[in-house]
Amino acid sequence: MKLNRRDLIWIFPSAITAGFFGWLGWRTVYIQLLKTGVGAPVWKDGPKVQVASVAKLSTPWKFKYFRYPYAGGSLRAVVFSLPKAVPGGLSVDDKHFLALSRICTHLGCTVNFVDNPELGAIAYNHRTDHPFLGCPCHFGAYDPLQAGKAVYGPPRYPLPRLRLEAQGQELYVTGHEVPLRPLEES
Ligand code: FES
Hints:
- It contains 2 helices and 11 strands.
- By secondary structure, the chain is α+β, with helices and mostly antiparallel strands.
- The protein has a single domain, classed as 3-layer Sandwich (Rieske Iron-sulfur Protein).
């Protein structure tokens, strides 16, 4: 079939429009759906470091930032209390805790614990009814109630967990999940 100039006037814009909507559809699926699940962690032993007291995290969604030494340096991390138990977390009596790396599994920015979901919806474009972890670089979001699973934005993998132990009224970290993405790949 021979195309003339008049045909090209509508073929080019149509192709560009179809390409744009195709890209938009793929991007929507990628951002919303293609996320790796969170199962039982594989731990790598590390130094035992006191990170918080149970009393300081006595009610759900209290959190504390800390650093944890690992082979490549000093890992930014967060420990917080949860309203329910999650895989890889620690439960003491009726209290539940989880510790996560704060290194975004997309490109390695430092994520923040967003304890105000309303402000989080404005700042991170992610609407939820409970606190989450948000990355300021490309607005990735991770869900604490799904043990750190990536739930929005470019990150595909969950935040690596850190192993918690309780001794008396103190919480310790004694190792981290492997692979320690994005610092180590599987
Ligand atoms: S580095 Fe966190 S979303 Fe890109």
